[in-house]
Amino acid sequence: MKIFPKLNANRRTILLATWGLFAGLTLLMISAGSFSTLLGIRAELENLPTLISGGITTAYYAGFLIGSWYSLRALRSVGHIRVYAALTSLLSASIIVTGLFDSPIVWLIMRVSTGLCLAGLYVIAESWLNGMAENHYRGRLLAVYNVVTIGAWGLGQLLVFNFDARNIGGYAFAAIIASLAVIPVAISEQATTPEIENHLHLSMRELAKIVPTGAGTILLVGLAHGGILGMAVIHATREGLSVGRIGVLVAVLQLGGMALTWPISSASDDIDRRIIGLLCCIGVITLAGVMISQPTASNWTILLMFLIGGFSFPLYAIGGAYTNDWVSPEQMGAAASQLVTLYGVGAMIGPLVAAPFLDIAGEQGFAWSIISLHAVVLLFLVYRIRAWHAPMTTKHWDDVSFHGRAFFIPATIVSLGVNRRGQSTRQRRQTEEQQPQQ
Asked: Can you tell me the distance from the alpha carbon of 240 to that of 363, in angstroms, rounded to the nearest whole number?
C-alpha cells in the first residue's frame, strides 16, 4: 500500500525526514496516556466531586490554550527541534511533580503544565507535517500522525493496570518514557523541518473567514472529544470496574481511532471531507445509541467503544486536512497553532458539558453525552455542506482509492439527502425573490 501515491521519490524523503518525529511522538503519547489515566483514577479514588474531577481535565485543556499560543512564538525564534526538546523535558518534570504530591491544587497546576506541553508538541508536529504535505495526500499523512498519536496514547492507557494510581511508580514510568522521547528527534541525521522564516501571522478571525468549516469543525470536535476522554474514566470508575478494566475501556477508544483513521482519512482525500465527517458522526451516534442498552462491564460495550473511537477520532484529521487545503503554505504554521487552540477551547468545555449527563442519567449518561456532542458536530457539517456546495469528488473513478470507493455509496446517499433539502430551500427563496417581478 502506498502511503504517498504518485510521489514515490518524495515519499522516501518525507519518511526519512519524519521518522524521528513519529518515534518521539510514540513515546510521548505512551507517557501521556498512562499519566492521564492514572490521574483520572486517582482523582476518583480520592472521591473528588464530579465538578473537581472534570475541572482537572479542564485544566489540561486550559494549558492547551497557552501552549498553542506560546509554541508558535518559540517556533519562529528557535525552530521545531529545540522547542520539541524543551517541551518534552517540561512534560517529564510535570508528571513527576504530580506523583509526588497528594493535592488536587497541585494536580490542577500540573495538568495545566502538561496541557501546555502537549499542545505545543502537537503544534510542532502538525506544522512540521503540513509544511511537507500536498493536498492530494495530506489526509493520508495526517492519518499516519493520528494513528501514531492515538494508538500510542491507547497503549499507554493499557499499561496502567501494572501500577497503583496512588503510588509514584506509575508516574515515574510515564516521566521516564517522556524523557526518552527526546532521543529520536535529537539524533536523527535525516530530520528535515520546514522553513519557518516565511510563516505568516493568521488570526483566529482570519482563519474562520478563510475556512469557516475547518475552524468550526475542530472547535466542535474538541468539545466532543473532551467530553468523551474527560468522562470515560470517571464513568467506568463509578460503575465499579477494576483498574485494568478501566484501562481497557478507555484504551479501546484510542485503538479504534488508530484502526479506522487511515481508511477514513484516505477516503477524505478522494471524497468531500465534510461528507466523510458527516458519515462518521452518524456512525458514532448510532453506536452510542446501541450502547445505552449495554451494561458498562459488558464485552459488547468494549466493542462499541472501539467503534465509537474509530469513527470519532478521525474527525480531527478530517477537519485539519480540510483547513490546510484552503490556507497558503506560509500560513500553515499559524493555522496549526490556531487549530490546536480551537480544539483546546472545545475540549476544555467538553467535560463540563458532559459531566451533568452522568449525574442526571446515571449509567446511560455517558452514552447520551456522546450522542449529544456528536449531534452538534453533525448539524454543523450539514449546515456547511448546504451553505457551500462542492462536487462530492473531483477525481476520475479510476483514480479513487479503495477506501474512497468503499465510502462512495453512503457518501452519495448522504450528499443527495443534504443537498436536496438545500436545493429545495434555494429554489423556494428564488421563487419568492422572483414573485414581485412577475
From this structure: 11
Of 184, 147, 170, 260, residue with least CA distance to 27: 184
Q: Residue type for 121, please?
A: L
Tell me the C-alpha distance between 187 and 297, whole Å.
45
Other Cβ atoms closer than 10 A to 218: 28
Residue at grid coordinates 502537537: 122
Q: How far apart are the first and last CA of the chain?
A: 60
How far is Cα 155 from Cα 157, in angstroms, rounded to an integer? Answer: 5
Which helix (DSSP H) or strand (DSSP E) does residue 40 occupy?
helix 8-45
Domains of the chain: 13-191+203-432 (1.20.1250.20)
pLDDT, block means (10 residues), the chain with 438 residues: 43 68 91 88 78 77 81 78 91 94 90 92 82 64 79 82 84 94 79 59 87 94 90 83 78 85 85 92 96 86 93 92 84 80 86 87 89 96 87 68 76 77 48 38
91-101 as b/e: b if 16+ CB within 10 A: bbbbbbbbbee
Between CA 239 and CA 302 the distance in angstroms is 14
Tally of residues, the chain: 438
Take residue 332 and report the three cell numbers written for it.
Answer: 500553515
Per-residue burial over 172-207, b = 16 or more CB atoms within 10 Å of its CB, e = otherwise? ebbbebbbbbbebbeebeebebbebeebeebeeebb
pTM of this structure: 0.72
The set of cell numbers assigned to 418 is 443534504
* Other residues' Cβ atoms within 10 Å of the Cβ of residue 2: 11
Question: From start to end of 271-380, where are the E strands?
Answer: none
- Residues sharing a CB contact under 8 Å with residue 423, sequence separation 6 or more, in sequence order: none
Q: Kindly give, in sequence order, each residue whose CB lies less than 8 Å from that of residue 430, ignoring residues fewer than 6 positions away.
A: none
**438 DSSP 8-state letter:** -
Q: Is the dihedral of CA 163, 164, 166, 169 positive or negative?
A: negative
Helix 169-180 with 8-45: angle, nearest 10 deg: 160
